[in-house]
């Protein structure tokens, strides 16, 4: 229920509330808001702000969500993503999206090597991207270790493609920053155009699909990422084989 992204927004007062909740998890569903506020040494207004940060409109809704979380109630997951995909297809047709694709393609066309980076699900997509690029004749690597010797002396005109759904993954940001410092251009593929990774990139491609969580785990569709990777690879192949 308490995701890393959510907890990153917690203030010291929020953390005091959180601490009381997890230490009294069995009582929270029956505990009045004033009792929790007194226990955490905060105001009831702080409790309500905490509830909103946790995705609840009020304390009663928070208690219900928390009880369901403790009881292991499974979140519903839509098995029809047609609306999301249609929204992405419409975005693909936009001028801004096509300009981002073209800018990334021009960087890649000039490169001698492409390095994919990412962790978790994005890491698996990075491995797929490196293989796909290599299959069309463009030398590519996937790296998840910032201390690999190959990174100490990058080939000229190296381009890094950083994958992160949130654009906030600290390990990916660290590796991307180190590669930039060594002269690599950075292309980011994220779901958040205002994220740290997107802002530090020379070119960002955002896909803007609705985030989906099931039992606190991110199951946001990654079809747009695969589309972007394959589109860039095909453009490279066609430019090399007119």
Brief sketch in words of this structure:
The chain has 242 residues and is of the alpha/beta class.
Your description of this structure?
This protein has eleven helices and seven strands. The protein has 242 residues and is an alpha/beta fold. The protein folds into two domains: 67 residues, Orthogonal Bundle (Arc Repressor Mutant, subunit A), CATH 1.10.10.10; 159 residues, Rossmann fold. The strands form two sheets. The chain has a five-stranded parallel sheet with strand order 2-1-3-4-5, with helices on both faces. A two-stranded antiparallel sheet has the order 6-7. Helix 2 crosses helix 3, helix 7 crosses helix 11 and helix 8 runs parallel beside helix 11. The model has no long low-confidence stretch (mean pLDDT 88). It holds the Pfam family HTH_6.
Assess the beta-strand content as a share of residues.
Answer: 5-15%
Q: Low-confidence runs (pLDDT<50, min 5 residues)?
A: none
User: How would the global form be characterised?
Assistant: elongated
Strand order of the largest sheet: 2-1-3-4-5
Number of distinct helices: 11
GO molecular function: carbohydrate derivative binding; DNA binding; DNA-binding transcription factor activity
Domain HTH rpiR-type: 1-73
Keywords: DNA-binding, Transcription, Transcription regulation
Domain SIS: 97-242
Summary tags:
single chain, 242 residues, alpha/beta, Rossmann fold, 2 domains, 12% strand, elongated, MurR/RpiR family transcriptional regulator
Task: Tell me the layout of helices and strands.
Elements: H1 4-7, H2 12-23, H3 33-40, H4 44-53, H5 59-70, H6 82-92, H7 95-110, E1 113-117, H8 121-135, E2 140-142, E3 158-164, H9 170-181, E4 185-190, H10 196-200, E5 203-206, E6 213-214, E7 217-218, H11 223-240
Parallel strand pairs: 1-2, 1-3, 3-4, 4-5
Antiparallel strand pairs: 6-7
Helix pairs in contact: 2-3, 2-4, 7-11, 8-11
Keywords: DNA-binding, Transcription, Transcription regulation
GO molecular function: carbohydrate derivative binding; DNA binding; DNA-binding transcription factor activity
Protein name: MurR/RpiR family transcriptional regulator
């Amino acid at each position: 229920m308490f995701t890393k992204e959510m907890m990153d927004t917690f203030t010291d007062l929020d953390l005091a509330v959180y601490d009381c909740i997890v230490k009294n998890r069995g009582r929270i569903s029956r505990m009045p808001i004033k009792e929790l506020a007194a226990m955490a040494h905060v105001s009831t207004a702080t409790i309500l702000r905490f509830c909103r940060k946790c995705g609840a409109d009020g304390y009663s809704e928070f208690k219900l969500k928390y009880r369901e979380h403790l009881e292991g109630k499974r979140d519903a997951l839509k098995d029809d993503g047609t609306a999301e995909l249609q929204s992405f297809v419409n975005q693909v047709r936009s001028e801004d999206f096509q300009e981002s694709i073209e800018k990334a393609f021009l960087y890649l066309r000039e490169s001698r090597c492409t390095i994919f980076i990412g962790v978790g699900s994005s890491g698996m997509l990075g491995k797929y991207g490196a293989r796909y690029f290599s299959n069309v004749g463009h030398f590519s690597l996937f790296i998840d270790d910032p201390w690999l010797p190959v990174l100490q002396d990058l080939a000229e005109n190296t381009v890094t493609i950083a994958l992160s759904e949130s654009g906030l993954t600290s390990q990916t940001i660290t590796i991307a920053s180190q590669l930039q410092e060594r002269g690599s251009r950075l292309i980011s593929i994220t779901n958040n155009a205002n994220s740290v990774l997107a802002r530090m990139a020379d070119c960002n491609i955002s896909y803007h699909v609705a985030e989906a969580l099931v039992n606190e785990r991110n199951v946001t569709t990654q079809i747009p990422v695969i589309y972007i990777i394959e589109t860039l690879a095909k453009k490279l192949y066609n430019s090399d084989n007119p």
